[in-house]
């Protein structure tokens, strides 16, 4: 991709779903290749930001804690930065009864790269929601996890294409091609 003089609007966003201290502390968070999820997301988020791709954090409300609590906070290693969106939800599908759809439409987003927690719950529901809302939906095969076996992670990675999502390893994504950053 040739460098351009000015950054054009990106049509891709990275959704980081439910990676909160509460879950990181209690769940086994290995990815399909055995890397800890937060370590992998540190790499993925840095590559997305480097390409100028907006990052949106989806956070699950838990009535036991305030939204300002340590339990619901994003781990420091991948914390939201100025300009990132943080969207709170109360159900597995990040599109249900949230501002996510309007935020993405307002940014001109057409493609979503999805990662986070939990594979069998909120990631799965949001993948279905994204496809249903007409987004070109990509799931980062090695950047989601949950409390379960590696077989379960592989199961979802092999079934999401049947609903219209593309599943790809994070090192196989050309973030620059999706982003708006110029090359040095």
Report on this model:
This protein has 184 residues and is of the alpha/beta class. The protein has one domain: Isochorismatase-like (Rossmann fold). Helices cover 30% and strands 20% of the residues. It has 6 helices and 6 strands; from the N terminus they run E-H-H-E-E-H-E-H-E-H-E-H. It has helices at residues 21-26, 37-50, 100-106, 119-132, 150-159, 175-178, and strands at residues 12-17, 55-60, 85-89, 111-117, 136-145, 166-168. A 6-stranded parallel sheet has the order 3-2-1-4-5-6, sandwiched between helices. Strand 5, helix 5 (150-159) and strand 6 form a beta-alpha-beta unit. The radius of gyration is 15 Å and the shape is globular. The model is unreliable at 1-7 (pLDDT under 50).
Short description:
This protein is of the alpha/beta class.
Q: Mind sketching the topology for me?
A:
Elements: E1 12-17, H1 21-26, H2 37-50, E2 55-60, E3 85-89, H3 100-106, E4 111-117, H4 119-132, E5 136-145, H5 150-159, E6 166-168, H6 175-178
Parallel strand pairs: 1-2, 1-4, 2-3, 4-5, 5-6
Q: State the low-pLDDT regions, or none.
A: 1-7
The CATH fourth-level homologous superfamily? Isochorismatase-like
Output the CATH topology. Answer: Rossmann fold
Oligomer: single chain
Strand content: 15-25%
Structural category is: alpha/beta
Determine the fraction of residues in helical runs and give it as a percent range: 25-40%
Kindly provide the name of the CATH class.
Answer: Alpha Beta
Major sheet summary line: 6 strands, parallel
Shape: globular
| Beta strands, count | 6
Specify the CATH architecture: 3-Layer(aba) Sandwich
Rg measurement, Å? 15 Å
What sequence of helices (H) and strands (E) makes up the elements?
A: EHHEEHEHEHEH
Tell me the span between the first and last alpha carbons: 12 Å
What is the tally of helical segments? 6
Question: Can you give the mean pLDDT?
Answer: 90
């Amino acid at each position: 991709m040739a460098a351009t003089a000015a950054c054009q609007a990106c049509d891709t966003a990275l959704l980081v779903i439910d990676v909160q201290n509460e879950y990181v502390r209690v769940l086994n968070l290995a990815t399909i290749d055995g890397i800890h999820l937060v370590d992998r997301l540190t790499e993925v988020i840095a590559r997305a930001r480097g390409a100028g791709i907006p990052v949106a954090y989806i956070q699950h409300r838990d009535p036991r804690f305030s939204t300002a609590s340590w339990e619901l906070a994003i781990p420091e290693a991948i914390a939201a930065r100025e300009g990132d969106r943080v969207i709170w939800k109360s159900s597995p599908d990040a599109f249900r009864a949230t501002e996510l759809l309007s935020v993405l439409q307002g940014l001109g987003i057409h493609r979503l790269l999805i990662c986070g927690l939990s594979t069998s719950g909120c990631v799965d529901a949001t993948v279905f929601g994204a496809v249903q809302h007409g987004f070109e939906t990509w799931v980062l095969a090695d950047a989601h996890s949950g409390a379960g076996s590696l077989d379960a992670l592989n199961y979802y990675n092999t079934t999401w294409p049947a609903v219209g999502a593309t599943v790809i390893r994070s090192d196989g994504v050309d973030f620059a091609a999706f982003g708006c950053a110029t090359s040095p």
